[in-house]
Amino acid sequence: MRQEIETILAEARARVAGVREPGEVRDLRTHYLGRKGQLTLALRSMGSVPAEERPLLGRLANEAKAELERLLDQRLEEALKRETAAHLERERIDVTLPGYPVGPGAPHVLVQAMRELEDIFTGMGFAIAEGPEVETDEYNFVALNIHKWHPARDMQATFYTAPDQVLRTHTSPVQIRAMLEQAPRLPLRVIAPGRVYRRDPADASHLPAFTQLEGLAVDVDVTMGDLRGVLLEFVRQFFGPDTKIRLRPSYFPFTEPSAEVDVSCTVCGGSGCRVCAGSGWLEAGGSGMVHPQVLANGGYDPAAVTGFAFGMGVERMTMLKYGIDDIRLFLQNDLRFLGQFRSM
Ligand code: PHE
Fold it and tell me: Residue with the nearest Cα to atom 3 of ligand 1?
């Protein structure tokens, strides 16, 4: 028995000295001291030795156990230290290496387009007006002749935030706000660029949140000729001097008469191509003469003044200008896309 304990201990010493990995140390601990470990089993067979030998043997066995535990602890600590050191060495960071170059940023292509549009219209005497994106049902619809029952409410799938509150579906409510702020003073000439929201799924030509630019002019004797002149000047400056426009009869509840604005195709110049489906024209926005009721809702006397209004999608204008074929690119922040518009 005594011989057995000494043999086990000698062998264990040698094996512990020979291992390096924490896992190996743990295996050895199980091998000798685990529930079915060699030393454990030896201690357990103590019952079968003669009573007079037990005290001595018991002490021996306990000493062997204590020594082995100490050796294993020591070895494990060393192994763990070595492991940590190796880990740190592997992940060493050379803080003196030069970093990756970070170039200067640039305004997003849509921001650039907004600024250009604002410059063009302020150059023609328009001031910039603003309104909230969370708008009242009253301003977004009712004051624009779109009453509760009006079918035009279905044309613009609306996000309601409260029974009488919406995320504005267009920038036209700013027409009402601008008129109420300034009436009865003349002339009133404003543009209102800003975010609008519609419950449309995103695809290549739709986003649930996009940008519009509204225009409004109110004065004595404003005519549809003025509307046409302003829009023509705008497209010439924005798309190029040879650009043409076409006003196509249409319907909006807040303008009468109303017209769809087409621009000559920015790809083929009007001769017909795939982009304009052979027609030579591209849809650019809505427009018309401000409805007398809308003038009155804004605080103006429809017997004394007239006005024109127009609205366009800023993403759409930007897509036509640069030949961008998917509106979602504006939101994806892909630098390969955005980098093409850095220095404009
Ligand atoms: N508000 C209309 C729309 O969102 C566009 C429009 C603006 C039409 C002004 C006429 C006059 O579709």
Answer: 170
CB of 145 sitting under 6 A from ligand 1? no
One DSSP character per residue, 46-65 reads GGGS-GGGHHHHHHHHHHHH
- Judge if the beta carbon of residue 172 lies within 6 A of ligand 1: yes
d(CA 293, CA 274): 41
Banded pLDDT at 155 (limits 50, 70, 90):
low
Distant-in-sequence, close-in-space partners of 290: CB < 8 Å, separation ≥ 6: 175, 216, 218, 254, 255, 306, 307, 308, 309
| Cross-strand pairs, 211 | 195
The ligand 1 atom at the shortest distance from the C-alpha of residue 258 is: 10
Hey, whose CA ends up nearest to atom 12 of ligand 1?
Answer: 286
Residue 156's pLDDT band (cuts 50, 70, 90): low
pTM, two decimals, is 0.73
Q: To test ligand 1's pocket by mutation, which of 141, 170, 206, 306 has the most ligand atoms within 8 angstroms of CB?
A: 170
**Could you give the CA distance from residue 299 to residue 307 in angstroms, rounded to a whole number?**
13
